[in-house]
Amino acid sequence: MRRSSRSPLRLVADVAVSLVVGLYLVALVMDEVVPRAGPLVILGMIAGAAQGVALWWRRSHPVPVMVIALAGGALVHFLAPQGIFPFAGLVALGSLAAVRPPRVSLPALAALLALTALNFLTASSEEAQFAMVFPVVAWALGEVVRNRRVAIDQESRRAVSEEQARIARELHDVIAHSVSVIVVQAAAADDVFDERPDQARAALRSIEAAGRDALGELRRLLAVVRPGEGEESTPGPGLDRLGELVEPFRAAGLRVAVRSEGIGADGALPSGIDLSAYRIVQEALTNTLRHAGARRAEVTVRAAAGVLELDILDDGRGSGGGDTPGIEGSGDGGAGHGTAGMRDGGAGHGIAGMRDGGAGHGIAGMRERAAMLGGTLDAGPLPGGGFRVRARLPLGASR
């Protein structure tokens, strides 16, 4: 750790610890050794002062500081056995245990206990036993600090990972939806460019609108990733914008009916649920547009008994054909008509798009959104054809 990174309070504490420990050890050696005089006084003072100075680096270089504290502590104890407590070693051990795992700190604890055990040769048994407790306490305190730091770091990493996953889901939903609309509309414009230029122009206008919406959503997401660039982040879309959401699908030829039950105009939903519900509907309709031989889709949003229910049906043809019982008037014609007029095989399994790897990821993303809010999501083909996505999100969820 660089000195410049230390807070003023920590700086004062580090200076105080180094000075107090160093001066105490020097005074202890002088008090014990002076009566005998000789060069041992100088040697002991150097050992005491070295331990105090070394403690200044105990956070950045805990292992070397521990070695100095053990070596200097052994010399000071030899010269002044009445000191009993290896103060420098206790401080160094606590700092070492706070930043290094037990495989490093436990050997240091054993070495300090061995040093403290020398008191059994020079002090009473009661004093020696009392002194043996302190290295264990110092190690335990350091280990508590280390575990707390590890827990905080893991929580921070988890929060970052969740945020990255959330942004990835948002990007997937925005890009998949907009690109799907653009591809379908571009194909439609190409088909009628010569015979129906008015329809081609309408398709191009829809492409422009989808592109603008995608750019707006991407700017909003980038504002979250890179905050503080002078642009305030706007709230994410919610169920109040379902009308805007389905317009590009209708322009692409998919007849979408939206029904809302139990949600008042002034009844705002929790922001997390509102955004997730919007994204689930968006992803389901996008998969219908991309992969299903569907001409009609029906979206039902219902709030009752503290639960928000989402029900999305389409009349896409499964491999066995047949009409969708859930949507009236959908069983006329082949899977290649309507919105599905896609040249990559429109007879997919409704919203699921099971033959396309991307759709599987979309359903997994929808399930993950629901699970994060404590809800559930079921998706699968209907017996008579078509596909259904049903989600239940508890309105008590706050994330």
From TrEMBL:
Top-rank taxon: Bacteria
Broadest EC class assigned to this enzyme: transferase
Origin species: Streptosporangium vulgare
Every Signal transduction histidine kinase subgroup 3 dimerisation and phosphoacceptor domain range: 163-229
Protein name: histidine kinase
Keywords, comma-separated and alphabetical: ATP-binding, Kinase, Membrane, Nucleotide-binding, Phosphoprotein, Transferase, Transmembrane, Transmembrane helix, Two-component regulatory system
GO molecular function: kinase activity
EC number: 2.7.13.3
